[in-house]
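User: Before I run my own analysis I want an independent prediction to cross-check against. Here's the chain; please return only the structure tokens and, at the end, one sentence I can use as a sanity check.
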Amino acid sequence: MKAEQKILPDAPSLIEAATEQFVHAARAAIAKRGVFHVALAGGSTPKGLYQKLTTSPYVEQIDWSRVHLFFGDERCVLPTHDDSNFKMAREAMIDHVPIPAENVHRMPTEEGVAPEVAIRYSRTMLETLGEHPLDLVLLGLGPDGHIASLFPDSEALGVTDRSTTSLYVEKFESWRVTMTYPTINAARQVIVFIAGEAKAAIVKDITTDAVQGLPVQRLAPQGDYYWYMDAAAAGQ
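Assistant: Structure tokens:
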């Protein structure tokens, strides 16, 4: 399934459009099912979205008591570490919106080794979601075509029997926990954020099929699928 491409003039415009989309998705899910389940991403563009959500009029447009936050991937560091996606999201948004603490489902990366963290998080997702899919999954795009922590040539790409898995990323010398393709693809809506001139080459490779088999190209969402790009990323 091809993504619907939304190309905005610059990063601020991208963030504003994405914020409006987030609010719309949240309000629609809460109106229909009484709850909104979203998986957050790391990265600078998602951070801008989280910060925007704390401002008026957006923050007042969501019933935060009915929002449940998950994380698409996480580095195996303490939640206070500067590399933690949870820390970034907490400082940018969570601490500034009226969401109940029990609705924030971070990966317990400080407890045990990565495979155990992945198993625990899969259980947390099952307990919270049941058999229902996530309403929205937010993703960034790496210059090598990775999404979440689904990196090229990693064994995580082939995991289909559980919602999360662990992997060791050689080039970063770090353990990660990530949601798997079945979890992401089952979501009602998937948004990939792509911003900046540094991403122009990978966008060109993907959209012209110059390169095949990149992790992002293996996405096959069953629901709505969007790429939010700024003009710099779409430049080639």
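Sanity check: The mean pLDDT is 96.
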